[in-house]
Amino acid sequence: MAFEWLNPLLIATALLLAVVGAVRRVNLWRAGQPESVDFVAGLIAMPGRYLHDLHDIVERDKYMSKTHAATGGGFVLSLLMIILVHLLGINNQVLGWALLASLALMFVGAVFVFKRRLNPPSRLSKGPWMRLPKSLLAFSGAFFILTLPVAGVLPEGAGGALLTIVLSIFIAMGLSEMLLGMTWGGPMKHAFAGALHLAFHRRPERFGGGRSTGLKPVALDQRVLGVQKPEDFKWNQLLGFDACVQCGKCEAVCPAFAAGQPLNPKKLIQDMVVGMAGGSDAQYAGSPYPGKDVGQANGGPLLTMTEGLIDPETLWSCTTCRACVEECPMMIEHVDAIVDMRRFLTMEKGSTPNKGAEVLDNLIATDNPNGHAPTSRMNWAADQNLPLLSDVKETDVVFWVSDGAFDMRSQRILRAFVKLLKAANVDFAVLGDEELDSGDVARRLGDDATFQSLAKRNIATLRQYKFKRIVTTDPHAYHCLRNEYADFADGLFDTIEVLHHTTYLNELVQAGKLKLNSYKGGTVTYHDPCYLGRYNGEYEAPRELLRSLGIKIAEMERSGFRSRCCGGGGGAPITDIPGERRIADMRMDDVQTTGAELIAVGCQQCTAMLEGVVEPRPQVKDIAEILVESLVEPLVQERH
Amino acid sequence: MQPDSSTALDDKGLDLTELDLKIVSLISIGKHPTSGRARRAEQDGRAVELGMVLAEATGDKQNLTVIHAGDSQLEAQQAALRSYAGMGLGAVRVLQMRDSADAINPLSEYLYKHAPDIILTGVHAESGESSGMVPYLLGEALGWPVVPRIANIVSIKNGVAEILQALPRGQRRALAVRLPFIASVDNAAPAPRQSAFGPASRALMDQKVSQSDVDGVRNAWSELPARKRPKRLKVVKAKTGAARLKAATAKPQGAGGKVMKEQSAAEQAQAIFDLLLEEGVLR
Where are the beta strands (DSSP E) in A296-427? Predict the structure, then answer.
């Protein structure tokens, strides 16, 4: 074969340039803030994290998981053997056959990638990503032919100079996509950054089936609070942004995107990359933020992102429902990034939109978001005769009432739950006026100072009393208490169990402490609240409760971990960024397709949002309310 | 409808870059109506907002000085003062004095010495005496005009400020006032911008110990929560919706009084003088 020196030279050059690119890329990430990571353990765990955690998510789309396994697996094996065979010149027939096999595997995968790209869904990015299947085919095909002599299929030196030149062009094309593109910012960047992102993930608890959803606290004595410039992110957050494959799974599930609000999680992550690397978003070839043109945004590592790179409205459109995070095969943390930037807007710029400032002022001055007198927190229970912890000091269950106490609709849920607790003879008490807002809204609006103040004061109150469990009807308070207070509680929550009322009620029902008639109404569907489901993994207890009433749940297409947000999370009803539709209306459309007459909900915020949809629509009831209707009340003893 | 006063300044693009304007906003510790906690007072916050807009229009934020006369040692009060600073002030000047002392003397001494062009205050404080007398007593001490309840400052030209004074139910009165002057800022003025935690916690509390006399009169008083007075029920006899709306929104018309527009200034002054004599204000 002619030009025998050419291909090893090409491979060596590509490898060398890839290393140079890698160093440059690593330096971009290193511009971020320090975050301690166990490097060795992360690297050791990385293959496992890829094969299990990442692949489990990709596996939700069988076509793509098989395609990726063939292409990616074939590529990694091929590359290793290509180095041995074609760079180091090991001329072993068995190795040659093995290389042929892995290249064939990769080629078959690439054919499916190609097929997928013939008519790609709108969520997929186009541009350089359309080039990728061709590069994959070129790489695997050209090396396949080049390897044939090694395996002894073709005689050494078969084909003329022309074939060699054609092959070399394809090889150069394949190598530049696969190796240079990996570290110089092409589509293959996802393999390099993604592997390291899995190794050095900021929330390693998520791997192996774990869950880590609590926001990280802000150190309030920092130079800048929140994230102003890309370099204010932690370095491994920057690394995470680079791992994006632009598959658009996030875009497909984002309720704000569907509602036509100016948010697209995929574009947001790409904008973070633009900010980190500098430049404009003109290269971006996916769906834009609804209502905003691509090509206007400019950023750089030292530039304020909310001035020119990202419209604050984009950040305020997010309901923090975590659907994007749940769907992301690369396990990127979109919500963390959004809240980080919100923190800057609120705590440094003082520019929380619409009612945000008013709500935060109220939380500071009255410990509740609507400015009600702090002494009126127990007015809803004037006729309930609830034991106060400040009187009893000790109890089994603390009923965390939450701010639903001030809202007349939510009070119906609270009353229903109290009735159930009493019927089951539970030893419980409430904090009364000592309870403060959990800080959920303040934290999601970026005011971590107010969140921390509320959390610390709530913790100090809880510390005074003896109890085993906290039960609340509000998934947002539940999430704060269970996942976010521990950062400030100094071990208090090690011995306390925090439960959502559906979990607790299910326990009572299963233990036979509540006698229930079977449900008499029509079809029922269940709406998973984001902060109960995706944030806390509780999908089963509410369903088991409904089943125990004899209800056969007519599930929505988007239920469980794919549940669509009601639009009420993350302070979205407060910041109220306009879109083309309302998120709650879209959720109600989901409900309507099941033909359900009743929506069972486990969250007062969801109840409020879904009941805000104009009639005619199905009834909305909290599970506690549904249970109370079927409760067999213990008879008063007859006198003889 | 009430004119949108919040954007009035922006629309016209108030440009004071030629002026060397010194503005002082006086702030007090507010008190939240339902929780009773110390906070940024609503009117004082508006005074700072207006001061900031004016200072930004001159091109130099340093042209605004925000002053508090009182005790800033307690944590709650410190936090309230910082919540003003969170609007974007680099510093709050505190004329440090005992809580029981009278703020007028140290304030008027300071203001006399530094001679600003505009002094902005709230109409009255949310706690303490809440008499609303501070602008008047300062006006008396400095010999400056006092403009009560302003909604906005529209322009400043040739040493004369064009001011919108707030009247009930969204009405405005345009006034031309020569600098320097003292103005109290009404609730109708643009709402204060959001206070951000970062700048608030980093702002300088520039304390100056000041000489002050104990407010003997006030110290002899004892404070009680205000008792709610029963409200007289309004019997509305209106037949139509429009009439009911009018009855609900109309200000009770005073029986006495007269409007004097045509008469000469001397006649108008005489009429005011006579009224003051009649009411026993002047003797």
Answer: 298-299, 397-400
- The whole-angstrom separation of Cα A545 and Cα A496 is 24
C-alpha to C-alpha distance for B96 and A113, rounded to whole angstroms: 73
β-pair partners for A59: none
**Segments of B103-197 assigned E as strands:** 118-122, 146-157, 160-166, 172-178, 181-185
- In whole angstroms, give the CA distance from residue B95 to residue A267: 52
pLDDT at position B137 over 50: yes
Q: Give Cα A73 distance to the centre of its chain.
A: 26
Residue listed under structure tokens 């593109």: A181
Q: How would you classify the pairing of strands B172-178 and B38-40? A: unpaired
Q: Give the integer Cα–Cα distance in Å for A598 and A551.
A: 11
Judge whether residue A640 has pLDDT over 70: no
Contact indicator for B199, A224 with CB cutoff of 8 Å:
no
Question: Any chain A CB within 8 A of the CB of B87?
Answer: yes
- What domains, with CATH codes, occur in chain B? 5-215 (3.40.50.620)
Closest CA to A271 of A230, A236, A243: A230
By the CB < 8 Å criterion, does B35 face chain A? yes
A446 HSE (CA, 13 A, CB side): 33
Nearest-angstrom CA–CA distance, B197 and B218: 35
Chain B residue whose CA is closest to A346: B196
Q: HEC states along A506-523?
A: HHHHHCCCCCECCCCCCC
Lowest-pLDDT range of A229-243, B32-46, B249-263: B249-263
Question: A15-34 as b/e, with b when 16 or more CB fall inside 10 Å?
Answer: bebbeebbeebeebbebbee
> If you ran DSSP here, which 8-state letter would residue B96 be given?
E
SS3 string, A481-510, reads: HHHHCHHHHCCHHHCCEEEEHHHHHHHHHH
- The structure tokens listed for B35 are 């929780």
Specify burial of residue A253 (Cβ count, 10 A radius: 0-12, 13-18, 19+).
Answer: buried
The tokens for A227 are 């994230």
Q: Which residues pair with A577 in a beta bridge?
A: none
Number of DSSP helices (H) and strands (E) in chain A, helices first: 29, 9
CA distance A484 to A612: 29
Q: Which of B180, B104, B93, B110 is nearest to B145 (CA)?
A: B180
**Chain B nearest C-alpha distance from A359 (Å):** 11
CA B92/CA B275 separation, integer angstroms: 43
Yes or no: say if A145 and A1 are a contact pair by the CB < 8 Å rule.
no
B112 in Cβ contact with B226 (< 8 Å): no
Rg from Cα positions in chain A: 28
Give the integer Cα–Cα distance in Å for A263 and A245: 18
* Residue from the list A349, A360, A366 with its beta carbon closest to the beta carbon of B34: A366
Going by C-alpha positions, the residue among A360, A399, A381 that lies closest to residue A478 is: A399
Q: Is the pLDDT of residue A181 over 80?
A: yes
Q: Do A349 and B196 touch (CB under 8 A)?
A: yes
Per the listing, tokens 């002894």 go with: A152
- How many other C-beta atoms are found inside a 10 Å radius of the C-beta of residue B253? 6
d(CA B148, CA B120): 10
Instruction: Strand A428-430: give its sheet, edge to edge.
Output: A428-430, A397-400, A469-472, A497-500
Interface pTM, i.e. ipTM = 0.90
Residue B22: name the closest of B61, B63, B67, B68 by CA.
B63
For tokens 């150069």, name the residue: A172
Residue B147 in tokens: 């403009």
* B39 contacts chain A (CB < 8 A): yes
> To the nearest whole percent, how much of chain A has pLDDT over 70?
98
The answer to whether A165 contacts chain B (CB < 8 Å) is no
Angle (deg, nearest 10), helices A265-277 and A235-242: 120
For residue B20, is pLDDT > 60? yes
